[in-house]
User: Fold these one by one.
Assistant:
Number 1:
Amino acid sequence: MHSPVDILLKQLIHFEKGNATAIYIQISQQIINAIQRSYLTEGTALPGSRKLGELLSINRNTVVAVYEELASQGWVEILPNKGTFVLKPEQKTAIIKATTQGLEKLRDYPNTTGFPFQSSFNLASTGEHSISKYVINDGQPDLRLHPTHQFSRWYSASMKRATLISKWNQTNEQSATTFNLHLSNYLNATRGFHIKSHNIMSTRSTEMSLYIVSQLLVKQGDVVIVGNLSHYKSNMIFQQAGANIITIPVDEHGIDVDYIRTHFTKRSIRCVYVCAHRDYPTTATLNAERRLKLLQLAKHYEFAIIEDDFDYDFQFDGSAMLAMASSDAHGVVIYLGKLGQSFFPSFQVGFVVAPENFINEAKNYLQILDKQGDLIQKQMLTELISEGEIHRLIKKNITVYKQRRDYLCQLLSMHFKELAQWEIPAGGLAIWLRFEPRISLVEFAKKAKELDLFLPKTILYQNKNICAIRLGFGHLNEADMEIVIEKLKSAYNAVIRKA
């Protein structure tokens, strides 16, 4: 006759011999789960090693390894000549992942809540999964260009700094941190600003920056003006804040500022969202005349300008046009930027530049979301700025990306010269490719996917006036580009034949 404990263990324990996890680990994890769920109570005597081996059809030495593993973690006590008994460790909330499904099936975790909550249509994910070998994005950097070994050394050196521990032990961020000081000096030198460390707030990303700004600026029903084609993530954030988004025309000179003057009145607008250098997605640059008009209009109409400088690091031809924030004498511009686009994504940092009173209020939101931030990241970026290393990395990558832009345009001229139109952008990692005559972009993406090339829906723009894609090239080397453009041409021909 088997004891109740023997029967219970035989029912609960399942293991897979072909699993990468050792059998004794699989079994010990499931016994731990049984103890956590109170199936095995404190003081329960477990079967002897020979008996449990027979129950589970495993070697006795494997059972010995199971009990030793449980004892080392404090789940059982092994008493010589007496047996193995269940304990309850002091850390009763320990979470152990079981590698098999035996225990979990006894108590399935609910798929739906037993209470109502507010879901958000505005924040529905735009991500799409694809197993295609080749992918086109909206203009992301190439991770292969990042100096892996150098970053490992820099990160390791930053972790060893004696000052790091003291910074971690601080209960409140200092009013002017070393990082903010270096970042403000860097922006003053590179972007024509005249800011102090109290005019800047660093965040994890541009999206986090915009989210905090929108929480401060936008109330339910407030009018936010964007271009008639604009960044989908920014629109999602504004909509979630309750904004009434109104689109205005965009041409080759950027958004139509005169349209704002003729269609809106004073204090009817909460803010206008613009891109500092290249409009998203069209890559058109807001010219100097319109910038001046927009600054004057913001002062007169009393609205804020959110200036998103998402691709400052990728200027190829000439000098980048100075941001409106650099000539803002009336405190109407909130500048969003990103530092470290030549680095791995985890080393990039977003920031907000604005008048001191706005930054102070924004930091109240930030301390809830991300009180301390990544201190090692800030330490490393501080040193890269002060040593000038960041300038070297940016210049090195700009040379590569400019060559890729030029080669892509050559390939487009070979394959799409009579089929599409585009301008060579002075910077950025994407080209605005407009098809003429028009085709079905949905069908185009479908045919491309059949050729192992994925075009996400977020780069496709089609309505009664537009048929275009935002063709990102930064992540593609020349060999990749040749294959991608050939696949695009084959997909295009397939769409035309079907039509």
Number 2:
Amino acid sequence: MKIYFLVFDIFGMGGTVRTVLNVTNYLAQSGYDIEIISVFRYRESPFFEIDPRIKIQVLHDVVNRKTDNIGFKSTIVKKLSKMKSRLIHPDDEAYDFFSLLTDMKMFNAIKEITSGILVTTRPSFNIFASKYRNKGVYIIGQEHLNFAIYPERMKNSILKHYKNLDYLATLTNDDTEDYKRLLEANSKKVKVKKITNSIPKLQGVTSSLESKTIIAAGRLAPQKGFDLLIEAFKIVHPKFPDWKLRIYGYGREKNNLQAMIEDNKLYNHAILMGPTQHIETELLNASIYALSSRFEGFGMVIVEAMQCGVPVVSFDCPKGPSEIISNNVDGILVEDGNVEEFAKALMELMGNPEKRKQFGKKAVENVKQYEIENIGKIWRDTIDEISQRSGL
């Protein structure tokens, strides 16, 4: 049974790409026939490693497209590319990237799939696939965020269309219960199943926790709350002037965050590092990971930090962190949005190397449940369930 994954841009960076590749690389190595359908391609080479056994189909190649073509076909393509999408939900945060041209390409691609499993990786793709997939194609929709954070139009579309999925893969216990309550009562078809994000198997190397470095990573977007982190570090800095804050990632908030750093005279202490392909290397050179998000679907980077033996200070935001972190055992959970308490938690670990090491050791033990061998088994069991249902 062939397995397809529909993603925004498999060549890019970010948590969804990383987790999709953890799973697809594992399945390819386990002998499954895997194809990734990438709607876009904005990079010449992939940010993360892709197993060569995986087939990649790119629908809209922004890198290699020819923009100087003249002719009727080229004119039509340009017109379609400027027209708003009709098939992607308007509340998708990346809606402006899509167009009538990408609609056509996505529709044609999904209609070419006549059997097997299609895994969709964002709400608008889940909705799209539930409406247009061919009979005989099984859909596993992935839900990376909790229902409550969506706008009303998206909530209504989720309730209307998710019930036509075969499986909905959720990331946390709370989300699993919420979606079971919302969907399974109104549909005999969809099965809601918790399948968390995964990490590669631990290589046995952990941080010494001696570097006076706090690290954070993610899209420079309001969701990630890096403005709150800089506010907390402003409180911390006078008492621990020899510590540094390094924030990895890129995004639309870069200029605003840089202005905050300069206005608070934190330059040379709080540093926007840009994106990195090797977050694990940076974690091994850090002593604390700070997660300041306003909301999270899961918090993949929490797991990666803990795997490297780095204790995490995190807002207890909805909904992932509290499921991963055991408060005052392997990290610290802070009241959601409380910047002063966040600063106190950072200073608690900054000033206590023994507690950092105690938490770090426990963190390594507690995140083994998220290693790909364990999460991969859930994927394989789900694929086997579908194979049995389809008689293949």
